[in-house]
Write a structure and sequence with these properties.
- The protein is of the alpha+beta class.
- It has helices at 4-16, 69-81, 97-101, 136-140, 161-165, 214-217, and strands spanning 24-27, 36-44, 47-54, 87-89, 93-96, 106-112, 118-127, 150-153, 183-187, 190-200, 203-211.
- The strands form two sheets. Strands 1, 2, 3, 4, 5, 6 and 7 form a seven-stranded antiparallel sheet that branches. Strands 8-9-10-11 form a four-stranded antiparallel sheet, with no helix packed on it.
- The longest helix is centred in the N-terminal third of the chain and has 13 residues, at 4-16.
Length: 218
C-alpha cells in the first residue's frame, strides 16, 4: 500500500513528464527493473530518493532530443520533490535500475497511457517522514493545479466503416448498454467509477454513484 507522500510524488511526475499525451500513475505489481534509471536524492523533511525510467525516450516531447536523459528528466524530478516541502534536490545520475527499484521501503509506480500501456516507471523511497503526515493536506495543494481529463461515457458501439460513412442527421445509433444504466467515469482514459447523468442548471452533469478501488480498476 502506497503512502500519501509516494503517491503525491508519483502524481507530480505524471503531470510533468513531457509526453504528448496524458499519463497516470498506478502502483506496480512488479517491483523489478532492468536497464538504467535516472536517480536523484532529495534532502528535506521528509527526504526522498526518486528513480525514473522512460520506456522509449524518443517519445519525450521536450525539444531536447540530443541532450543526456539525466538533464532532460531533471525538471521532472524537481517538480516531483516540490510536493515534499522545502529542501534540496541533489544531482541526478544514471544508475542500474535494479539497485533502486528493489530497495527496501521503495514504492514502484507504473506510469500508463490511456490504453494502459506502461510508458515510464518511477521508484519512490521516502525517508524520515515521521511528523510530516499532519502537513500532508497542505502539500497536496502543490499538485492541485495538475489537470487531468475526466470523461463520462454512456456507452460504446462498433460499426463497419460503410455504416459510419452512411451516418446522417436523424440516424439512431444503438449503444452497448440499456437506457438507465450507470455511465462510466474515466480519468485520463482509465475507468475510475460509475454515475448517473443528470441536468444541473441546464447543463448535463454526472452524479457520482460509485468510485472503484484499485483492485476493481485493474
Amino acid at each position: 500500500m502506497s503512502t500519501f507522500h509516494e503517491t503525491a510524488v508519483a502524481a507530480a511526475i505524471a503531470g510533468r513528464l513531457p509526453f504528448g499525451f496524458p499519463v497516470i500513475p498506478e502502483p506496480s505489481t512488479d517491483p523489478g527493473a532492468a536497464g538504467d534509471a535516472v536517480v536523484a536524492t532529495f534532502a528535506g523533511t521528509p527526504g526522498a530518493r526518486i528513480a525514473l525510467q522512460i520506456v522509449e525516450p524518443s517519445r519525450l516531447e521536450d525539444g531536447s532530443d540530443a541532450a543526456p536523459l539525466v538533464d532532460r528528466l531533471h525538471p521532472v524530478l524537481d517538480s516531483a520533490v516540490a510536493v515534499l516541502g522545502p529542501g534540496a534536490l541533489g544531482e541526478a545520475v544514471l544508475v542500474d535500475a535494479a539497485d533502486v527499484f528493489t530497495d527496501a521501503g521503495t514504492q514502484v509506480f507504473d506510469l500508463v497511457d490511456a490504453d494502459g500501456a506502461v510508458v515510464a516507471r518511477a521508484a519512490v523511497r521516502i525517508d524520515g517522514a515521521d511528523g510530516a503526515v499532519a502537513r500532508a493536506p497542505q502539500r497536496l495543494s502543490r499538485i492541485a493545479g495538475v489537470e487531468m481529463e475526466l470523461v463520462v461515457e454512456i456507452g460504446r458501439t462498433r460499426m463497419p466503416v460503410r455504416d459510419v460513412l452512411a451516418l446522417e442527421p436523424g440516424r439512431v445509433v444503438e449503444l452497448d448498454r440499456a437506457a438507465g444504466s450507470p455511465a462510466d467515469i474515466r480519468l485520463n482514459g482509465r475507468l475510475i467509477g460509475h454515475g448517473t447523468v443528470v441536468v444541473a442548471e441546464g447543463d448535463f452533469a454526472i452524479r457520482v454513484d460509485r468510485i472503484l478501488d484499485g483492485a476493481e480498476v485493474a
